[in-house]
Amino acid sequence: MVEAVSGKDGSVGKRTVAGSYSYEPADIRKGYTDRVLCVDISDNTFREQKVSRQMKKLFVGGKGYGVKLLWDAVKPETKWSDPENAFIVSPGPVCGTTQYPGCGKSIVVTLSPLTGTVIDSNVGGFFGPFLKCSGWDALQIQGKSDRDVILFIDGDKQLVQVVEDYLDETDSHLLAARLTADFSENEADMPNVSVISAGRGAEHSMWGMVNFSLYDRRRKDVRLKQAGRGGTGMVLRDKGVKAIVVRSSRNPADMNHAHDPARVSELGMTLHREIFGMDNDQIKMRKSGTSFLVELCNNYELLPVKNYKYGADPEHHKIKREIWEKRFTQGIPDGCWYGCTIQCAKAVDGFELKTGPYKGQKVIVDGPEYETIGALGSNCGIFDPDHILEANFYCDTYGLDTIGVGTGTAFLMECYEMGILDKGKTGGLELCFGNSQAAMELLHQIASGTGFGAVAGMGIRGMKQYFVAEYGADPGVLADIGMETKGLEYSEYVTKDCISQQAGYAMANKGPQHDETWMMGAEVINRELRTLGDKAEAVYWFSLFRTWFSLNGTCKMPWADIVPADNHLQPRASRVPGHVQSLIDLYSAVTGDPLDEEGMLRQSERVHNLQRALNVKMGVWGKEKDRPPYRAMGPVTEEEYLYRKDFYDSMIKNELGKIPETMKTPEKLAVIREYKQNAYSRLQQMIYAKRGWNEDGIPTVARLKELGIDDPSVIETVEKALAESSGRQ
Fold this sequence. Notes:
single chain; alpha+beta; Aldehyde Ferredoxin Oxidoreductase,  A, domain 1; Aldehyde Ferredoxin Oxidoreductase Protein, subunit A, domain 2; Aldehyde Ferredoxin Oxidoreductase Protein, subunit A, domain 3; 3 domains; six-stranded mixed sheet; 28 helices
């Protein structure tokens, strides 16, 4: 079937429909439609999968549905690029709520090109709520198309179409805008369309990510939010999917048909009042988004500088909050879903690009958020706001993860300064810290898969292997300074002084991403965690609690970034107990199911353990897989030690019982390393025990059955690994 289609700019193209599926409408009841849309892109076939009561009870939604669907889709030998690998989007039962701040989140789940196992990435934008409005609790795409296609879900007409690609646009800022116009009924309908897209970079780099769009009514343009981690965009493009479009004009004000809508509104109003009344006196999230973290992290030696060598820099003032407040467009609502008064999704309008294919054009730059400022800025020794904004824009439109690109570039810069790389190897790029011109050129090369960008685009784990094989680099040195675990690059916090965050990063199922645990508040800032046991218990609690956001489609910002006035008086203040209870009450008000804190953690624990079992299924297990590079623990080089000489000498004297004045620097480095690594090993085993896992981090059969995860395929998988693990001891 061929249809004519007119773009907003007046251009006319032809839309060839290669497959279509009409479905019956479904009401949303208490946050659920109880249906999954499954599309096989190889032959353009469709099926509707009912969600059983058991699946809903055990896995809740969002990430839980994604992990369960992926478990069922893949075999132990499945690779990320195999047709059976599934690309899954699921919003969760609370997602779409407009009365309570931060309820527009979706989760993307797939096998990662970087890690070889499950990645889950949390993202804002309108796609997840619109998908649910269209009648689906999740979307699962499998197969591989032999040509580029666009998947269109029309929630108003209850129609799904696979459309052959008819557009020249590839990069997301153009593609999302064009598809928003093309798949709208008219200009007034454009806010009812959301697009998932990647870009040219996702075709060439394992850092490829996907953008979720929202139509900004005030700016009258499309904005982008990112499911950035783990190569999600590379999976989508490898399948031949250029974009996914959803359209729904359903009024989202009561889209979830909550069990107790009055209670939902009451809870939301309480939180709205806190945000309006206290944000300006706390962290000014509404003015500056997450950029406030630059100064906070610099004050506590947490800001990544020069590949995590240092935790602070005197130039940080050039990229701190006040700089971005002047750049961000004020007075325009910047939430990524309706009703979110925290409005952390900032943007810079009319930014003129100085490099690349869009040089001279003025664009909207979404962000930068703290992670991007740290990754593309301080971690590379670059303290130039214009560079950060330009790199931010190009990463987004190319479909590249800013964390992966920034952390990877910082690694390359240290390799260059250590002599592992030189201009001959980099194709003339002088990749020393602070060289923004070289960093920008590398970014463009990564996106096109050309020059040294083809090497960089493999990710840090791939680069380490390449440098050993091709250049004879010392694998021990690369292991120390290459900031990845399980193949995923570290997000932007220095953890040398925070052993709980070392564990939170390295022991996270998907790899070192801070959305599972952010321990610096409890250990470093609030100093609530005194003993190793305290830290183990805190990592256990936070990893489960923060998983819960991704089960339900909610955002963590309203939980911890604005706190009640009396929060400092509460025990374990970093947990913000008042807001924990608010979220529990919100879940019950939407779904009608009673819940308490223990039940909340149990919901997360089921999904956390199934995800761990999926890692085991894919061969990613063993305590060594859960260890950080030493740079995350302590000083690798003499210059790192000398940077904080008094601090480390005090540690040697007070904690190791040695006399630093009688020791040479290499000896000090050695004893600090031994002390740090031994402490981490003890903490690791304590956390395993809390989770009911064996000494290699494998869930025990008893713990899985206690959680209700007694699927024979899961039990068989872990039993086999447990037997192999026992043989290693």
